[in-house]
Amino acid sequence: PGSESGAAAGGGEFGGRTLTSAAELPERFSTPLPIPPVKRPARTTADTDYYDITAREARVEILPGLRTAIMGYDGIFPGPTIATRRGRRTVLRYRNQLDVPTVVHLHGGHTPPESDGFPTDLVLPATGGARFAEQAVGGRTSTGTRDYTYPLDQRAATLWYHDHRMGFTGPQVWRGLAGFLLVTDDEEAALPLPRAERDIPLMIADRAFDADGSLRYPSMDPRLISMAGVDADHMAGAAGDVVLVNGAPWPELEVDAARYRFRILNASNARRYELALDPAPHGGGPFTQIGSDQGLLAAPLRHTTLPIAPAERFDVVVDFSGWPVGTRVTLTNRAGGGGTGQIMRFVVARRATDDSRIPARLSSIEPLPTASATRRPWMFRKGRVTSMGTDAAGWVINGREFDPRRVDAAPRLGEVEVWRLATDAYHPVHIHLSPFQVLSRDGGPPGPADHGWKDTIDLRPKQYADVAVRFDDYAGRYLLHCHNLEHEDMAMMATFRTGR
Ligand code: C2O
Ligand code: CU
């Protein structure tokens, strides 16, 4: 009992045993925090930036002295950051040089259906791709390359792009296919928030490694599954014992005694974290949340701890002048034991001038009108999955496994809907296309971290939440799914088709 929620909940270390052998575990806080490089457009016109990004295999140093084979956008993990402005059309000229099909999805993007990365819209390998053709059930495949067009007519926000291939998203993201896309806008740019080298994206992702440094995907390894105390029928999701931030194990960052803005993304396959800072600063409430998945909150919120489920983003300001110079401040995970109880470390290195401020008012957020909304229930729970010729335990929505040919709901463009998302276990639920507002949890008020515009919600076992959503434009088919990537791969997805 409880085994299925262990790894996904970030609790327990697979029965107390480490996955990565001790000899390979790097010393904590010995690697400087890398910052993913910002990609330059290959070509720019008056309203459009074109980016060439290639998915390919590469061997990179993650654990000191060892080489790890990854699948990386441009051969790096995380992939390059795309930094752009609201309304600048962004075209990703994507090339797949891997020997497997891939699909690119811009998570949080308000994107037309043909560029949203439906899981069977495969980009086949340039050579030998035909053997995967039958996996493209009802999809629009392309071979070798594809242009994804993102209008990005949306609020300033921390988005990310990652693989979304049906049935294989978990292993392909685990191997490295994830990167940031940052959108800014006039409203955000006018605020006196920390900027430039004091505005830092942090991609948190746990991984496990073999002795030779190669990535070990636990859910594919029966020995590890049994070590984890999780039988294959009740798969929790892939979890590791090494915490990477921006691709480096337990890194360290020297900071000025000043305010920093961190755009925190949990890019882990299945693990959720409860972030805290140790020691706590004078004055308490170390995290000042300024933004959520889909951009700025109306007003800042203080948190002592911050739960973060897979795919969620929190935009926070930490004021390092709250600690004496010389203090080592650890970003910890209260939901994790052993190595996963720590994430990275900051060293307050020096005094510095700081002209940043956190205004009392950040943005305005109009509540969606819900009085005449269509209501839809979505139940996320364990179930039988019979696709791909198997009959196995998997994860289903409203009793049905994902079928790319089926449409599960048809919301009308421009109309508000209230969706009740209910669970049996931990399920971080993500809705494509449009952001939502959390109205309630278990009939009570939203949680402390539910404010602002969201696209992913951290649902705990046997909870339900009501969220309001309105799809304003783009008619076509989109997804609703659990963002525990192993649940997603084991069929916990549904299709909705927007239209008039
Ligand atoms: Cu971040 Cu449908 O995914
Ligand atoms: Cu799930």
Automatic annotation (TrEMBL):
**GO molecular function ontology, one term from the record:** copper ion binding
Q: Where is the Plastocyanin-like domain?
A: 57-187, 385-498
Q: Has keyword Hydrolase? A: no
InterPro entries per record:
Cu-oxidase-like_N, Cu-oxidase_C, Cu-oxidase_fam, Cu_oxidase_Cu_BS, Cupredoxin
Is Oxidoreductase one of the keywords UniProt gives this record?
yes
Region Disordered: which residues? Answer: 1-18
Q: Which domain of life is it from?
A: Bacteria
Q: Name one Pfam family in it.
A: Cu-oxidase_2
Q: Which family does it belong to?
A: Belongs to the multicopper oxidase family.
Protein's UniProt name: Multicopper oxidase domain-containing protein
Q: Which organism is it from?
A: Streptomyces fagopyri
